[in-house]
What does this fold into?
Amino acid sequence: MALNCKKNLKIDKPIEHCAVFGVSCDDKTFTISRLLYLGLISQQHRGQESTGISILKTGGSIVTYKNKGLVSQVLNDSALSKLWGNVGIGHNRYATTGAQEFNSLDYIQPYHFKNNEIEFSLAFNGTIPNYAELKQSLENKGRIFVTNTDTEVVAQLIASIALGTESWPEILKTASESLDGSYSLLILTAEGDIYAIRDPLGFKPLCIGELKTEERNFYIVSSESCGIDVVGGRLIRDVEPGEIVHLSHRKELHSEMVVKSDRTALCQFEFVYFARPDSIIDGVSVAQTRLQLGINLARNDPILKDFKFRENAIVVPVPDSGRSVAVGYAQEAKLPYVEGLMKNRYVWRTFIMPGQKNREAAVKEKLNPIKTFINSKNVIILDDSIVRGTTTKKIINLIRDAGAISVNVRISCPPVIRPCYMGIDFPTTSELIAGRFKELYGNEAYIDEIRKKIGADSLRYQTIDDLISAIGKSKNQLCMACLTGEYPLKSVNKIIEMERAISSDRN
Ligand code: SF4
It folds into this structure.
């Protein structure tokens, strides 16, 4: 979907949209449907609303099966037993809440395209901010759309380019030249090839692996490397930004072409929050980065110099993404790490429930403090981010009610001040507590005003420099637009200028 930052106004965590996964096996008598299931379920955290797979059936046609629900609900034994084929792709999707059109299967991926000239299936993780322009120009050429998604724009673009050439690499190269966006996408062709494409700035992760058994060989492609691990595969490498990798057992695994850019823009939030800690993205361990983020927060934290405070201090993670950070913090601070918040694993989607009252009730349903650990302690809680501030405030209240002497909040991400236009659901600037307070109170005072608003005794965020050093990449290899307001895509900057012009006209 394009420009999702305004669609889901009630979230209190940034929401990732999708995961993609694909497998190609050199044995035509073997079915890879269960491997697709495993790869998708390992990436359920990237999208929980719907899932689906496309398989090249033995005999040569693509079959797509998809529905709303979790991987385990949709791809159950009965569904998998009917899906036989040695090459396939899959997709998990997060959809914006309240999107009426989402009730249609057309909005669930993989997106299966077939006309007289071409057949393929597409699994897409990303956002194309210039999709409206592209859609208009395709409609002008007579193309008819059935959805309002950028996924269909990509599919129709590919189909329209395919009228002039039969070479898949040529088609995909031409298509990617028109797409100004953040995306990782997989194409399954009716010829049984998988193409894995990452945008030239490499916003989203995408990696390839292999699995060799005595009987057969597999190529695997996955948003996160945990998908390769779970099927017993070996991570070969990441798909490079701008690269198109062709996975086929008719040739060696190879790169069709690389569109080089003078910078990259890997989303920093993958390391802070989205990705599973056991994943490795562009050569960087997510778990190790989170550990380092915790170490950085503890270094130079003035509260740790207060010996009286330290006597009763404990370090408590907000589960789950706060865990590795809290381990790093506790290690550096030489304070006890205590699992003081119990998480109910069976409650989903706390942070995307509409309405303030619902969200507060949902936080309580999901997290419960362990009073025996918390009572009479100076609690240092570690969390990944503060978006609206409402969830953090509720967690602080829960800890206080459990008898804490003081509640001190440490956040592994720097303040989030701007929305994301690159495919992550964020509230608008005025709903982001740091965005709003920075504008209201200025650079010097806004962090303390946030502290007061959420009711913490102290509040510290990661600095941007410390975030960069924990990831171990340079500033021009990462997207940090939601922290700095500097957007790396031309089409986004154009849209922001237009929005500014409209708002100044209104004023
Ligand atoms: S603005 Fe950039 S860093 Fe922030 S969530 Fe979006 S892609 Fe990630």
